[in-house]
Design a protein that fits this description.
three-stranded mixed sheet; globular; alpha+beta; 106 residues; 3 helices
Length: 106
């Protein structure tokens, strides 16, 4: 898998290398964009938009005020292909995995 991202980073991807998928991820967070909505490119059924992680004040479980890194994710779903409720379940699973990464090892 080493080097898979290199052609994309250098803008040398050929159309056959990125067409025909069913799901896409758009990460503008690496450019400092905090929140955005990604547009589905057919034939994809959905696309996940990932924003930048930003330090924000949060209320901790014990009620005290703390600081946490908060990241925005938006899922766009083509309802002709994927039910919106199923998309919401997927997005919740992504959130659960990111908030508790050790659970992925079990």
């Amino acid at each position: 898998m080493k080097g898979v991202g290199t052609p994309g980073q250098s803008k040398e991807l050929a159309p056959h290398e990125y067409q025909g998928g069913s799901f896409a991820i758009s990460n503008l967070g690496m450019f400092g964009i905090e929140n955005f909505d990604a547009v589905i490119n057919p034939p994809h059924g959905s696309i996940l938009a990932v924003g930048a992680g930003v330090k924000k004040p949060v209320v901790q479980a014990d009620g005290s005020l703390g600081v946490a890194t908060v990241m925005s994710m938006t899922l766009s779903v083509d309802h002709r292909v994927i039910d919106g409720a199923l998309g919401a379940q997927f997005l919740q699973a992504v959130v659960d995995a990111l908030e508790n990464p050790m659970a992925m090892l079990a």
